[in-house]
Amino acid sequence: MSQQMLEQNVNGIRMQVTIAGEGPPLLLVHGFPLSHRMWQAQIAHFQQQYTVIAPDLRGFGGSDVTVGTVSMKQHAEDLKELLAQLEVEEPVNFCGLSMGGYIAWEFWRHFPEKLKTLILCDTRSDADTEEGVSNRLKMVDLVLRHGPEAVASAMIPNLLSKTSRDLYPEIAQDLIAEIEAADPEGIAASQRGMAERDDFLGVLDQIQIPALLIVGSDDVLTPPDIMQEMAVRLPEASCREIPRVGHMAPLEAAEEVNQAMEEFLAVAR
Ligand code: MLT
């Protein structure tokens, strides 16, 4: 089956999106500071039964960059407009990793009628602490002064488990190359947007949508206890912990993640 890469004019920017397969829509929303490429294993697998839609968010991959701050709400509005342009009318299965999850909360807040299910990988629902905000702003400064090369290698131990780094050094190399190729202004804009994102922990009990939470047992950025707490608060959620993997569970353990997603989506279909 073939993948198509399209460009759409979305809210004043050119947005690149990969589309594959036919069936109910499955929207794959990448993490920071990556692109749709992190979902290759999911695109290949789910295109057999779903219309897989994997965009590059504003500022990343092949999409245009906006200088300044790109809020999580802006990303959600871009996705809503993209779906309209692609004439996707039925509610989507929204799968987001980390920053993709922060965007999912805003998508739910503003466009609940467009949402069928939620798959939340290695993410959180609370806002940043003061220290978290300050670390983000330091990273913005570093990237704008010295480029993404200054942060790429240092991010890897936070993204991948030690097991993945030892067993699959090529995953780390690919991630480093992807981060180094990212646009510094694109990184800065979404990093500022994440620093000012809202807290959704207190409203999780209002999200009446079937949800699957997936987390790597060795995720140091959004650890399993945080995601298990979210699963308790969400009315229709379960949490699947994948052993020996880190923050990039869909990349590090593609088969297990695909299986968990497939089982969940089959029931929700
Ligand atoms: C991500 O993977 O999207 C980032 O870890 C999100 C963040 O920096 O909070």
From TrEMBL:
Keywords: Hydrolase. Residues 24-253 form the AB hydrolase-1 domain. Pfam families: Abhydrolase_1. Transmembrane segments: none annotated. It comes from the Bacteria. GO terms for molecular function: 3-oxoadipate enol-lactonase activity. The keyword Hydrolase applies. The keyword Hydrolase applies. It is an enzyme of class 3 (hydrolase). Its EC number is 3.1.1.24. This is 3-oxoadipate enol-lactonase 2. It comes from Gimesia chilikensis. The gene is catD.
